[in-house]
Specification:
Rossmann fold, alpha/beta, 5 strands
């Protein structure tokens, strides 16, 4: 079973994520801040991480940088979720090693499609 970690501090988006992926074959884990997310990633060893950019404790870029600094986690793709669609913000995501970008607000269909991209053979 594939494992997906979502790092999101907004409880409503956490509910959306769980609802959107409930009927899929993915094991979904959610953390509400960057520090907890990094610990969860270390424990679960997911196949992909989706992270909000702006969060308490540690932002999404901090999570990505910490992952890239650890050989056991460096290969895990990370997709940043952000309300910003400004070119500078998106470029910053890719400077921190993003495998993709998901603009907020997103629909359940968009989220399922983005997750599915990482599990196609």
């Amino acid at each position: 079973m594939s494992k997906v970690v979502f790092c999101e501090d907004d409880p409503m988006i956490q509910k959306l994520v769980r609802a959107a992926l409930r009927s899929t074959s993915h094991e979904v884990h959610v953390a509400e801040n960057g520090k907890l997310c990094l610990a969860l990633i270390d424990e679960v060893r997911p196949d992909v991480v989706f992270s909000d950019v702006m969060m308490p404790e540690m932002d999404g870029f901090g999570v990505a940088d910490a992952m890239r600094a650890r050989p056991a986690l460096a290969h895990i793709p990370i997709v940043f979720m952000t309300a910003s669609v400004q070119r500078e913000q998106i470029e910053e995501c890719f400077r921190h090693g993003a495998a993709g970008h998901l603009a907020k607000p997103f629909t359940m269909t968009e989220l399922r499609a983005r997750v599915a991209q990482f599990f196609k053979n």
